[in-house]
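Write out this protein's structure.
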Amino acid sequence: MDTITLDTTYTETTQMGIHQVARDLVDALGPTLVAVLAGVKDRKLPPKWALLTGPTPRAESERKLRTAHRVFTALARNQDVHIARSWFIGLNPLLDETQPVVALNEGRDREVIEAARSYLRDIVGT
């Protein structure tokens, strides 16, 4: 199996429409976690973003969604979706014992990417 890197998933996620990004995340993480990481209070909003004819998230939420998608995809392809979901909701020592979904909510995208990069290095040597 080829190792999937965050650079690979960056290219893929960048080329995807935001509605597909939202759909993938809602399917994988559920609407509540997607709302948290995107920084919105309404957990009904992410499933609406997932619809092709649905509303488009604001720029800040879109950035967070794309970062989350990039990281989730790399983790899921190198391990599996359950481990990737667990990584997003678990306290992470590289994020000062903050959950990655909360760190994304706080706008700490770069820190989340670096924490994921470190995790991937540990498990697959990338």
